[in-house]
Amino acid sequence: MDLLYLNLHCQIPAEFLTSLDLPLVFLSSLILSPFRVIGLNYQLSSSTSQSSLSESLKNLKAWNTKSYKFKTKEQIPRQKFLKIPVFKSYRELLFCISSKKLSTLYAGNFWENNFFWASFKVKCALIALIGGKFIKDPYANTFLFASIFTAYDLFNYRFELITTKMTYEHFHYGQNKLKYANSKYLGYFMQIDNQIKEFNHLISPASENPVVVTKFICWLYSMVAFHNKWENEKMIDLFILHTIFYPLTTAQRRIESQFANPALQPFRYKNILHALEKIYYQEGILDGLYRGFMLNTIYMIPRYYILPPLVYHFSLKNQEKFNAERAQM
């Protein structure tokens, strides 16, 4: 059963979503997600035949490709698929969700899929990866399979799924009004993906859970896709993108110089906290952001916000003068 398809159940209308900010959309996804879980359980329980169950497991395994150690259907208690939750009130339903009882009723992690689903609705799935990596993934427990993915491989796979494997139709999913915006988001994602590919050959994981400096920068870099919804914000987007891109090039120079010198050890991160410590205190990312902001302030603000109005005002005055002289002739 295709989880990408199931995550699009209980959709909010596109006109409603485009008028909301991210917190409101995420809140609405939390409210609607119980009904999506119930519908998913009902579909799983209606699949009583062995063939349909095996097909669902096969599709689920295909969605989580690479190095997952997947349990066979003999190892999975069948009654967990057939259990349909019954709630006396919506209050009881929310209580079950808050206590994570529903998370054991279907294939996958409830909160992780909920984050992923909410990000699809606002066309920026990378925001889900931020919450997943910092909060959930280090302490995640899987239900159907025992993953032997590292956090590094899991992020790479999901990022590749978002940036390269997903077709254009997946991004708007029939919402024709958002096609133009999705092409912009897809362009941002492809830029980030190309940057990550340049770093992959430079980074050697040191432990079971390595975290790469470029991933954190790319997370920040990807967040700017939210702002590029309207054409009148294009200059603001360029300003933010170039500001965040500056420390990325700084980190690239640091890593390349380190690998060029055999006496230096490559960047290695033991866990998320260790990576944050190195990124913000030892690798000068905050200084890079500050320098990038100052350079853009000196260069882009005069270019895009001061000179164009002056040129427009000057051309308008010349046009009025030309029209007055032409009328006197």
Automatic annotation (TrEMBL):
<dbReference type="InterPro" id="IPR023395">
    <property type="entry name" value="MCP_dom_sf"/>
</dbReference>
<keyword id="KW-0472">Membrane</keyword>
<protein>
    <submittedName>
        <fullName>Uncharacterized protein</fullName>
    </submittedName>
</protein>
<dbReference type="InterPro" id="IPR018108">
    <property type="entry name" value="MCP_transmembrane"/>
</dbReference>
<keyword id="KW-0812">Transmembrane</keyword>
<dbReference type="Pfam" id="PF00153">
    <property type="entry name" value="Mito_carr"/>
</dbReference>
<dbReference type="GO" id="GO:0016020">
    <property type="term" value="C:membrane"/>
</dbReference>
